[in-house]
Amino acid sequence: SQQGEEDPQALSIQEGENATMNCSYKTSINNLQWYRQNSGRGLVHLILIRSNEREKHSGRLRVTLDTSKKSSSLLITASRAADTASYFCATALNTNAGKSTFGDGTTLTVKP
Amino acid sequence: NAGVTQTPKFQVLKTGQSMTLQCAQDMNHNSMYWYRQDPGMGLRLIYYSASEGTTDKGEVPNGYNVSRLNKREFSLRLESAAPSQTSVYFCASSAGTGGSGANVLTFGAGSRLTVL
């Protein structure tokens, strides 16, 4: 069964607006990662947040983690058409290989 | 840098045929993975290799075998393909166990497999 679940499943916004995607999970984790997948391509790692961190930034990306609610959010500010993609969260139970579980993703469409 | 390279990019098989998907990485990563992605869904782990010489089952290993040929290469074999194995297959690699870098995956471009 999937550990992480993204919400919403699909999101459509205008260029320049902010996009927020959420990820909920069920069990305690070591870290959580966000990935982007452009249509027909492989996933690209965006950001990793550890369980003892509450917020991380990378360029126009802001990720928060609330371990008490077992949830994370990914905020993309000032969105661009090039941000159109699917976004996946992956939760890792520990830092051993093979312990990341992916959610089903949020499909973001940014209209020019 | 090539990163993670998968071949072939596309393949059509008939039910019962066999094939091997090849994967190679040039980042000196210890761990390698095979995932499948079905339409509208996330990735499900088929098999992984935490380090050279070891392989372990993931969430959906039935119908597949893997070989960690050396540190660079990790192949996925379908011995007798079934329509349920129609999917997009992704190979990935990570630095290895210990430290959160173990969970940062670098993916290949994917191999689209159709089983008729």
Terminal CA distance of chain B reads 36 Å
Biggest sheet record of chain A: 6 strands, mixed
Percentage of residues in strands of chain B = over 45%
Net shape of chain A: globular
Oligomer: heterodimer
Contiguous low-pLDDT stretches of chain B (5 residues minimum) are none
Number of strands of chain B: 11
Portion of residues within helices of chain B: under 10%
Provide the structure class of chain B.
mainly beta
Radius of gyration of chain A: 13 Å
Largest interface: A-B, 28 and 35 residues
- Given as residue ranges, the uncertain stretches of chain A (5+ residues, pLDDT < 50) are none
Order of helices and strands of chain B: EEEEEEEEEEE
Order of helices and strands of chain A: EEEEEEEEEEE
What structural class do the secondary elements of chain A suggest?
mainly beta
Helix share of residues of chain A? under 10%
Terminal Cα span of chain A: 37 Å
Counting DSSP E segments of at least 2 residues, the number of strands of chain A comes to 11
Supply the number of helical segments of chain A: 0
Q: Give the averaged pLDDT of chain B, no decimals.
A: 93
Average predicted local confidence, pLDDT of chain A: 93
Describe the protein in words.
The complex is a heterodimer of chains A (112) and B (116). Chain A has 112 residues and is mainly β. Helix content of chain A is 0%, strand content 55%. Chain A has no helices and eleven strands. In chain A, strands 2, 4, 5, 9, 10 and 11 form a six-stranded mixed beta sheet that branches. In chain A, β9 and β10 (100-102) form a beta hairpin. In chain A, 38% of the residues are buried. The model of chain A has no long low-confidence stretch (mean pLDDT 93). Chain B has 116 residues and is an all-beta fold. Helix content of chain B is 0%, strand content 48%. Chain B has strands spanning 4-7, 10-13, 19-25, 31-37, 43-49, 56-57, 64-68, 74-78, 87-94, 106-107, 111-115. In chain B, strands 2, 4, 5, 6, 9, 10 and 11 form a seven-stranded mixed beta sheet that branches. In chain B, strands 1-3-8-7 form a four-stranded antiparallel beta sheet, with no helix packed on it. The radius of gyration of chain B is 13 Å and the shape is globular. The model of chain B has no long low-confidence stretch (mean pLDDT 93). The interface between A and B is medium-sized, with 28 and 35 residues.
